[in-house]
């Protein structure tokens, strides 16, 4: 019996084995069946898209030169020299790749490894291609015909022989015609003679260019010409510039409706086979390229297996509602479950091909650890960064980029700026990562962007009321916490504290002061929460109240205050006088005396208004206070010490300006109260006057940071910087946080005064150090000698004392520099050497952009100057500059260095760090990552080289979202371009109610230029969709930067309705960048309203109206279609040009030798201009659209016509 049972079991087992054997055979048959005769079906269906520019490709060496120019002028011209010296010439080499490698090797001598990678990335994006095209448009507008030519003295020269003749002529006689140049032009560093301009149009890398460059460089170095370089390629390539940095989406349409193109499409596959190589190496997670490398003997079987997977995965299977719920978490689980080195590629594959991945993801089991970590991190992101689950954010060194609205040009610009700062800090010995991160996070915009204020705690101010002590306000609450109490928008809170202090600085007798005083009186009558003060800027001391109305008003005010102890009563006396005057004129003495006698008939007029009046006080104090504020024109108004804009000090705008500033100040005060920086125990005015924006003295050159530039540090000038002598009287510390350079021709009287003021400042317990940079105006023996004497005197304190003493005497008696030299004692005479001075003069010209003989002050790299001939920079200005610099940047930098691992902190280190950090344009706030877990849901990529500056990149993204489709490719490229620590935080949605993503996506981006096997430029980059499902109806959508206007120029398919099962092989399309959008805003300078109906044109001299636009009446907005070039901006001929003139413009350019306004389109980024216009004299009543009255006529008026 047992034997029989065993036999039955054995037979059953055999039957099962046979069954599985048959199933296996069927699987093998299906898997490795015969290949299809149709080769295209084996490859699967594809979709490809590309965008080209309208202009032709140029040699990459020209774009390299523009990148070098962005670094600094020295790098550009060194690169131009090295390329020009190649033999054979670069253009004569075999193919594009060889040319590229040789040019890159020359650039590598001038760039760090990090910047070299960034150069390659810029070239792949063709970032500087628009600038090359702009120069080409300039050349075409000028009429350049030769392959290499020089514009000089009003003519175009096309031969070396002729060029030398012209150069010799203008060297002797000067130029009769000046060429137009722009700020974007490249001037040779040795160009000193700005009156003779020579512009070279040519192709860098050709032998012809090299010969012209050699001649022009020689004449520039000899001081005869200003040598300007503009790229020009005569022989245009048929190949257009292939763009990248954009996204392509294939969106699946709803199956509830169909809109198909039923026309017969003739496929053009033959054209695409040479250009498009499909990426089918990875299907369903199998990397067949790698498998074939590992098992070459199984290649045929692997190809058959790939074909099977391709065919079986091409169709989409519907999912149940419950299968949608955890797709985000399941995607994260699959990403984190694979090898760490493949995580990013898996992330990209899932996000960009999600519709075909969803079915397999639905079967993935999510671990408890990942689910818990994602949930915990989401709470941290919500609290710390205010992020929702669907937000996709990239933090680059803490700078916040919303991926949905950020283009690659913006990211590249930020990366370039960050790298320059980081490498600069590395070069001066600051390598501590924490210190670098802290310095990058410094926001000097909090000082730059805030309006500067002057201290209002001054006895010159006559306060009219006091909210804290006057009985009128005793019922108001007195706690500053009431600032946080909710109110209606725009409503001021009535608090019995002097939170808002309005000071009017004026001549009370001037009619220009009346509107301000009248509105201030209205503020007081309505019990506005304003403390009001007035500074009487009256006539000089010789005037008295009986012959000067301003003095009379001051006398009367002081008398009434003494008699009544009510400053408000005295103020109302002044306003009463104005109301009694019916004419439009200033107050006169009779007006004051008449009103005063009415109110005080028993008072003695002579005692009050006479020469010996006891009420003539505060006049000197007021004069000193006005000088301290730096106001050159009165009246002026201060609100908490902040000057209001002069244009708002008119009756129509004054009240609004005060309210706007009050709202701004309220926000500052609310933040301070919320953070407990301001409490009820503080004196509010004292607290306000200790803020960083309050200065002891206002000086526009010191405080207006927009008008000053910053030194760009370069290795070329390192020897000069090291040789500068410094002197300091500071004894407290070995470190001088402030470094001043005094630049100038020290043979001039103005620089004598500057040295004297500098010396006096040094003696006033200043902790600064001062060095001098001679910049003589000529090569005269005595000029060089006095500059040498001053330079040497700054080495030793005793010699400097003697020199300053003689200079002070020379200033009093107006001695010249020759007389000073002859009067100096022997111990401070030095051997004058022209060669020693020349290096400093060159530094002033090349690095500081001073002309010979010009004077200025450079403080921690910030360039103040060049000064005007009659401009004085006083000791108080040095004190203000020092305090401003300390508060603005230096104290923050010094504190960071002290808390870091930097051991040897030096004065040079602080100076250079301050120059580096201050030189950047701070446009983004920095955010620190909250404390989150990183074990189960974070993709980590480490920096390749810890000895180089390291970027910190954090990405927060839902792995199955629109943002993930875009950011994946960006991360992949940045990881190869930058030396960066990259963390990708998978911020998954807990439950999805629908398919999270219903589209396929490709982001077109490459880390460097791609060449084909023959060494020529590849047609890449293009968007490639491979192994696509054939049944869904797809719509192609391009995601390009907002200012790109692209148009489809080649595709036989309906790109709104793509069904791949209806095409033989695939779908291709080619787009063209038709225009770059130029945007702008236009306002009337008088009333700041948009000029209704104003028309503007863009064109060239030969074609002045190529594009036109009309200014919108509501916001003053306008836009124009443009392409790279230098375009003339004009008002359209007709009513616009007849009535209006352009009086100012921002974002545009104007050549020093031309009155034409030029708009330079030189990049792919958005270009925005601001234009202010004004009506011509006698045209104030006219309107571009005709009679204004017609606008107010209603329907019945039009009927009666």
UniProtKB/TrEMBL annotation:
Q: Which residues form the UGGT thioredoxin-like domain?
A: 59-240, 313-439, 454-702
Q: Which residues form the UDP-glucose:glycoprotein glucosyltransferase thioredoxin-like domain?
A: 712-918
- Protein name according to UniProt: UDP-glucose:glycoprotein glucosyltransferase
Output a single Gene Ontology CC term carried by this record: endoplasmic reticulum
What are the TM regions of this chain, as residue ranges?
A: 16-33
What keywords were assigned to this record? Membrane, Transferase, Transmembrane, Transmembrane helix
Question: Pfam family of this protein, just one?
Answer: Thioredoxin_13
Q: List the GO molecular function terms.
A: UDP-glucose:glycoprotein glucosyltransferase activity; unfolded protein binding
Organism listed in the record = Melanaphis sacchari
Q: Name one GO biological process term.
A: protein N-linked glycosylation via asparagine
């Amino acid at each position: 019996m047992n034997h029989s049972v065993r036999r039955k079991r054995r037979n059953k087992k055999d039957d099962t084995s046979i069954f599985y054997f048959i199933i296996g055979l069927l699987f093998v048959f299906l898997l490795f069946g015969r290949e299809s005769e149709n080769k295209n079906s084996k490859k699967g269906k594809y979709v490809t898209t590309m965008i080209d520019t309208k202009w032709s490709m140029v040699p990459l060496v020209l774009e390299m030169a523009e990148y070098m120019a962005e670094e600094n002028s020295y790098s550009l011209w060194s690169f131009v020299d090295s390329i020009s010296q190649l033999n054979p010439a670069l253009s004569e080499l075999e193919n594009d790749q060889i040319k590229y490698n040789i040019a890159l090797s020359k650039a590598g001598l001038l760039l760090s490894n990090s910047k070299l990678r960034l150069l390659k990335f810029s070239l792949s994006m063709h970032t500087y291609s628009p600038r090359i095209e702009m120069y080409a448009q300039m050349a075409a507008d000028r009429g350049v015909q030769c392959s290499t030519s020089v514009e000089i003295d009003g003519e175009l020269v096309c031969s070396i022989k002729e060029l030398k003749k012209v150069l010799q002529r203008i060297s002797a006689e000067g130029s009769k015609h000046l060429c137009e140049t722009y700020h974007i032009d490249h001037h040779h560093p040795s160009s000193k003679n700005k009156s003779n301009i020579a512009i070279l149009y040519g192709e860098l890398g050709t032998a012809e260019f090299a010969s012209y460059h050699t001649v022009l460089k020689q004449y520039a170095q000899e001081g005869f010409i200003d040598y300007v370089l503009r790229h020009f390629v005569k022989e245009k390539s048929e190949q257009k510039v292939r763009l990248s940095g954009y996204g392509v989406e294939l969106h699946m349409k709803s199956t509830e409706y169909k809109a198909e193109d039923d026309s017969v499409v003739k496929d053009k596959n033959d054209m695409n086979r040479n250009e498009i190589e499909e990426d089918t190496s990875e299907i369903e997670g199998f990397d067949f390229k790698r498998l074939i490398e590992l098992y070459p003997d199984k290649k045929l079987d692997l190809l058959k297996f790939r074909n099977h997977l391709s065919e079986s995965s091409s169709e989409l299977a519907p999912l149940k509602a419950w299968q949608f719920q955890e797709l985000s978490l399941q995607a994260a689980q699959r990403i984190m479950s694979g090898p760490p080195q493949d995580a990013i590629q898996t992330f990209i594959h899932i996000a960009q091909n999600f519709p075909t991945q969803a079915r397999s993801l639905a079967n993935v089991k999510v671990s408890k650890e990942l689910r818990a970590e994602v949930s915990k991190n989401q709470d941290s992101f919500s609290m710390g960064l205010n992020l929702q689950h669907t937000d996709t954010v990239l933090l680059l060194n803490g700078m916040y980029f919303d991926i949905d609205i950020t283009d690659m040009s913006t990211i590249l610009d930020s990366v370039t700026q960050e790298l320059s700062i980081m490498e600069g800090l590395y070069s001066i010995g600051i390598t501590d990562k924490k210190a670098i991160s802290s310095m990058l996070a410094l926001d000097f915009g909090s000082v730059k962007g805030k309006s500067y204020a002057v201290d209002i705690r001054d006895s010159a101010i006559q306060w009219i009321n006091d909210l804290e002590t006057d009985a009128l306000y005793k019922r108001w609450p007195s706690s500053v916490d009431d600032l946080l109490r909710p109110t209606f928008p725009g409503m001021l809170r009535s608090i019995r504290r002097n939170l808002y202090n309005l000071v009017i600085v004026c001549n009370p007798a001037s009619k220009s002061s009346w509107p301000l005083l009248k509105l201030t009186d209205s503020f007081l009558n309505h019990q506005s929460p304003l403390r009001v003060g007035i500074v009487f800027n009256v006539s000089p001391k010789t005037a008295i109240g009986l012959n000067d109305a301003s003095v009379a008003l001051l006398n009367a005010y002081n008398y009434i205050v003494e008699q009544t102890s009510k400053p408000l009563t005295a103020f109302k006396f002044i306003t009463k006088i104005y109301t009694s005057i019916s004419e439009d004129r200033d107050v006169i003495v009779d007006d004051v005396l008449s009103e005063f006698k009415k109110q005080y008939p028993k008072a003695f007029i002579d005692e009050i208004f006479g020469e010996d009046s006891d009420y003539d006080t505060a006049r000197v104090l007021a004069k000193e206070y006005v000088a301290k504020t730096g106001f050159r024109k009165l009246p002026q108004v201060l609100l908490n010490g902040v000057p209001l804009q002069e244009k708002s000090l008119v009756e129509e705008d004054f009240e609004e300006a005060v309210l706007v500033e009050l709202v701004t100040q309220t926000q500052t005060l609310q933040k301070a109260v919320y953070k407990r920086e301001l409490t009820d125990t503080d004196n509010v005015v004292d607290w306000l006057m200790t803020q960083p924006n309050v200065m002891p003295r206002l000086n526009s050159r010191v405080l207006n940071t927009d008008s000053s530039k910053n030194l760009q540090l370069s290795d070329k000038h390192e020897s000069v910087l090291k040789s500068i002598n410094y002197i300091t009287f500071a004894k407290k510390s070995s470190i001088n946080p402030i470094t001043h350079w005094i630049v100038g021709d020290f043979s001039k009287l103005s620089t004598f005064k500057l040295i004297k003021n500098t010396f006096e400042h040094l003696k006033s317990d200043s902790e600064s150090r001062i060095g001098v940079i001679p910049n003589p105006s000529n090569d005269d023996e005595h000029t060089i000698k006095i500059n040498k004497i001053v330079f040497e005197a700054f080495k030793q304190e005793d010699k400097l004392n003697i020199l300053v003493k003689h200079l002070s005497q020379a200033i009093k008696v107006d001695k010249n520099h020759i007389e000073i030299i002859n009067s100096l004692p022997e111990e401070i005479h030095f051997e004058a050497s022209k060669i020693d001075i020349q290096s400093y003069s060159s530094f002033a010209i090349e690095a500081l952009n001073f002309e010979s003989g010009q004077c200025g002050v450079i403080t921690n790299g910030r360039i103040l100057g060049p000064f005007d001939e009659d401009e004085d920079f006083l000791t108080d200005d040095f004190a203000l500059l020092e305090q401003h610099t300390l508060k603005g940047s230096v104290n923050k930098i010094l504190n960071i260095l002290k808390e870091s691992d930097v051991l040897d902190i030096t004065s040079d280190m602080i100076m250079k760090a301050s120059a580096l950090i201050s030189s950047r344009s701070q446009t983004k706030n920095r955010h620190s990552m909250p404390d989150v877990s990183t074990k189960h849901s974070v993709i980590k990529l480490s920096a390749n080289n810890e000895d180089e500056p390291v970027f910190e990149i954090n990405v927060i993204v839902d792995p199955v979202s629109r943002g993930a489709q875009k950011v994946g490719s960006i991360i992949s490229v940045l990881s190869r371009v930058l030396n960066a620590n990259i963390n990708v935080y998978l911020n998954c949605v807990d439950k999805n109610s629908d398919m999270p993503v219903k589209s396929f996506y490709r982001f077109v981006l490459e880390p460097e230029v791609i060449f084909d096997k023959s060494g020529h430029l590849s047609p890449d980059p293009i968007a490639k969709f491979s192994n696509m499902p054939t049944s869904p109806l797809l719509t192609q959508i391009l995601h390009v930067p907002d200012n790109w206007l692209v148009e489809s120029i080649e595709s036989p398919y309906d790109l709104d309705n793509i069904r791949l099962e209806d095409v033989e092989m695939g779908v291709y399309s080619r787009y063209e960048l038709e225009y770059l959008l130029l945007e702008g805003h236009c306002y009337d300078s008088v009333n700041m309203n948009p000029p209704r109906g104003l028309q503007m044109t863009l064109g060239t001299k030969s074609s002045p109206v190529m594009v036109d636009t009309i200014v919108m009446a509501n916001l003053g907005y306008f836009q124009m279609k443009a392409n790279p070039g230098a375009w003339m901006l004009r008002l359209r001929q007709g009513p616009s040009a007849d009535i209006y003139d352009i009086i100012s413009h921002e974002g545009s350019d104007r050549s020093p030798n031309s009155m034409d306004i030029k708009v330079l389109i030189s990049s792919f980024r958005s270009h925005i201009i601001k234009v202010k216009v004004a009506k011509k004299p006698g045209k104030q009543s006219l309107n571009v659209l005709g009679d204004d009255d017609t606008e107010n006529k209603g329907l019945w008026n039009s009927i009666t016509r």
